[in-house]
Structures are given as C-alpha cells and as structure tokens.
Design brief:
This protein has 400 residues and is of the alpha/beta class. The chain has ten helices and 18 strands.
Length: 400
C-alpha cells in the first residue's frame, strides 16, 4: 500500500495566515506545509484540502482515480471546492467499516475529541492508522495482537495518542510513526526532528510518497539521557516531553515533600499538573535499586537534590567529617550511581542543574556543593547516549 502526503500541516497550514510568530515567520520554502491530506494508492483520499489536485500533480500523482474521499475532522471556514471528477467528501460513523472496490477496507475509529480516525487495511494486508488533529483514540482497553505498520498522527499536539496506541500494542517497535497536522508549536528543521526522534517518530516534507509495510529506519530513542539547565530554564519540561509518548512512566522525585514549605508545595503541584495521569510517582533518593529493577521508563528529577541528600548523609558540610571520610563516602555513592546507570535496562531521563557557569558561591559549603554537582553531572553524562543543555527553553544537544 502506497501513500502520498499531499500536505502535512495543521488545518490552517504552516505558516498560519496572519500569524507573526517566530515559527511562522521562518516556515518558508521546504519548511512550509499545507493542511494534511493523504492519498492512498491513488484510490482513497483522506481529508480534502485546498489545492489538493495541484499538490497531487506536484507529487506526480492524479486524483482522477480517487473513488472515495473521507474527512477526519470538521473543516471550519468556507467549504473546500471539490475538484471535478471527485466524489463528494463524507465521514464514516464510528466503528463502521467501509469496503472499496479496490480491496481497501476502512474502519472508523472513535476519538476523544472532535473528528474520526481511519484504520485502512490494504488489499495485501498492510495496516495504516490515520488520526485527526488534536485527538487521540478513545476506548482502547484491550491489547491487540498486531500493530499497525504505519501511524499518521498529531504527535506534537497529542503525544498521549501515541502513548495510548503503544499501551495496547497498536504501535510497536517497528511501527513507522509519521507526524502530521504540524503547527507552529515547534520550530521547523533540527528542533522538530530532535523532538520527534525522542518520541520514535519522524516528519517528511509535503509531497512525500511512502510505502506502508516497507522497512523504514525508525528513529532511535536514546535509552539514557541527561538534561542539564539552570533555574527556570525549562529543563524539567524538556525531560517530561521526552517521555510523554510512553504509556507508563515512573517519575522519581528526589526532593521529598518538605512539610510546611508552601513555596516547595507550589512547585511540586505545578510539576504534577504537567505530568500525564498515567505516570506513577516515587519520592525517594534511593536510585540504585530502582535502576537495577526491570520496569517502565524512569524520569529522575533531579540529581541536584539527590546530591544534597547524599551530602547530608555523609556529613559533607562539616570540614572535619568531610576530611575524615565523608569525601570518600560521597565518591563511592556517585560511583555506585554511575555503575547503576551503565547497567540499567530501563529507559532513563535524568534532570540536573548546571551551576558551574554562574557566580562563584560566597561560602565554602556552597563551593563544595557546586564542585561535587559538576562531578556528579560528569559521571552521569558519561553513561548516557544523549546529553542536552537547556537555555531559555531551548535545548542544545551536547552529545548524541
């Protein structure tokens, strides 16, 4: 089964009309995207968008053989003109299946928001799932025996849709996940590729033709990642974003509850509000046993607080205790953590503060903490496939 992506952008296209944001201002030439529309084997058109006939011609195809046009979401604004010879667009009721004379079977998949998803099975059995913008499948409860060969979805706008599909086996390790309905949420080019790769997905230019079921090199999701950044740099958001397409995640909070500290409670509440409801939370600094266990991906937030707890336990703030064995104990704890990261079989994303580039602390204890955190970050980074530095919300890949 062959598909041609006549467009890969949001319903309003990219750049959006009359939008002056930085992403729209730079979404020119190859980075521009028409509203998403998918031509399947020159016989089925999913979503009719302005200029579809011209887009097909540019891609070397014709809409002359299209026998069915299906809409996946409400189309706001003026009605799209139906090119001559095309059947009138329609939508299939949720759960119903449509069989084309070409041998394609199309099943309507219910969504949790406005729109309809379409599961298309080709004449030779290849399976494609196309989801509308801003929506995720509803009612996926039972694991499926066979995953889709390809999924076209709003990966940036609704990453939880991919998490749901992975949870029930509808998207597996070999599923080719292609992002569509791309909007101005993420800058085009390297940043978009980086974010999608972290989710095991990719984007392609308008006019690209893909073969469903053919082997494609699925983006390699880094198994161990360290995210560094200063205060309020966006490092925690970056770390959380990397795991939001996974069906289950263990969030390890190393800061504890700090009973009575209202400011800390507000910070914890803000983090919890951002996280998907399917994530579990563990409040602990005992990281080595967690990393030794098999289980879902782990997000550690953060190593800075882990270090503070360890320095408390070894008496690092007292010069005499530090010289009398505290420094040696701390080095052992850091080495144990690095060894655990090296041998873990889990996917790990850890957050830590980058404090070595700022003002030199005024106190001896502050300078000691700064130096030891630099060593912890170095030891952890050495065991990671990818290391990212976040500055002003912008992620810079240092490694991987």
């Amino acid at each position: 089964m062959e598909i041609t992506l006549l467009g890969t952008g949001a319903p309003a296209g990219l750049p959006r009309p009359d939008c002056s944001c930085a992403v729209c201002a730079t979404a020119l030439g190859p980075h521009g995207r028409a509203a998403t529309a998918v031509l399947v084997d020159d016989a089925l058109l999913l979503d009719l968008t302005p200029g579809a006939a011209f887009a097909a011609a540019r891609a070397g195809h014709s809409l002359g053989g299209v026998r069915q046009v299906l809409l996946s979401h409400p189309h706001d604004g003026p009605a799209v003109e139906v090119p001559a010879g095309l059947p009138q667009p329609g939508r299939v009721p949720d759960g119903r299946e449509l069989t084309l004379l070409t041998g394609h079977r199309v099943r309507a998949v219910a969504m949790d928001a406005g729109g309809t998803g379409y599961a298309v099975t080709g004449p030779e059995g290849q399976r494609l799932l196309y989801l509308p913008p801003g929506a995720a499948p509803a009612g996926l409860e039972q694991a499926t025996a066979q995953s889709y060969d390809m999924v076209l979805a709003d990966v940036v706008g609704r990453p939880d849709a991919l998490a749901r599909l992975r949870a029930v086996g509808s998207a597996g390790p070999t599923t080719d996940v292609v992002a569509v309905h791309l909007d101005h949420d993420v800058p085009a080019g390297p940043e978009l590729r980086r974010r999608l790769a972290a989710a095991g997905a990719r984007a392609v230019p308008d006019g690209t033709t893909l073969v469903v079921g053919a082997y494609e090199e699925v983006p390699d999701v880094p198994r161990r990642t360290l995210v560094l950044g200063g205060a309020r740099s966006g490092k925690s958001v970056e770390a959380e974003r990397r795991l939001e397409t996974f069906p289950e995640v263990l969030y390890v909070a190393t800061g504890g509850t700090r009973s009575g500290d209202t400011e800390w409670a507000a910070r914890v509440a803000a983090h919890r509000e951002r996280r998907p409801g399917s994530w579990r939370t563990a409040e602990t600094t005992d990281l080595v046993p967690l990393l030794a266990e098999d289980g879902p991906p782990v997000l550690i937030d953060c190593l800075s607080l882990w270090l503070a707890d360890v320095m408390d336990s070894v008496g690092a703030w007292d010069d005499a205790e530090w010289a009398g064995g505290g420094e040696k104990l701390l080095r052992e704890r850091v080495r144990e953590l690095a060894d655990a990261v090296r041998s873990t079989r889990r996917t790990v994303v850890a957050v830590s503060n980058e404090v070595g580039s700022g003002i030199v602390p005024a106190t001896a204890s502050g300078r000691r903490y700064r130096d030891e955190l630099g060593r912890v970050n170095t030891a952890f980074a050495n065991e990671c496939e990818q290391v990212v530095l976040v500055v002003a919300g912008q992620a810079v890949v240092l490694r991987g």
